[in-house]
Amino acid sequence: MPINRLIAQGSLDRPEIERLEKAYDITLKALCLVDRNDPLTELVARKIIRISGTAGIADPAQLSARAIKELDIP
Q1: Which terminus of the chain is more exposed, N or C, with fewer CB under 10 A?
Q2: Measured between alpha carbons, how far is residue 57 from residues 19, 37, 40, 60, 64 in Å?
Q3: Cα–Cα distance between 32 and 12 in angstroms, integer?
Q4: Is the confidence at residue 51, as pLDDT, over 90?
C-alpha cells in the first residue's frame, strides 16, 4: 500500500508528506519489499506515520531506521 493513501486522510503540509514518503521508500528498500500490495507495506507505512507523530524525528533516514527497529524485522 502506498503511504500516500494513508497520509492523504490527514492535514499534513507538502514538506511533511515528502519526508514521510522518503522514509517509506527507504524502509521498503532496506526491507527488500517491492510489491506495494504486500500487507507488510501497509504495516510499514502505519509505523512510519505513528513514529513521525510521536517521536518528532525530522530526518527520513532516521525515521526509517527507527521504524525498522520497532518492526523488529530481520
Answers
A1: C
A2: 10, 27, 22, 8, 10
A3: 28
A4: yes
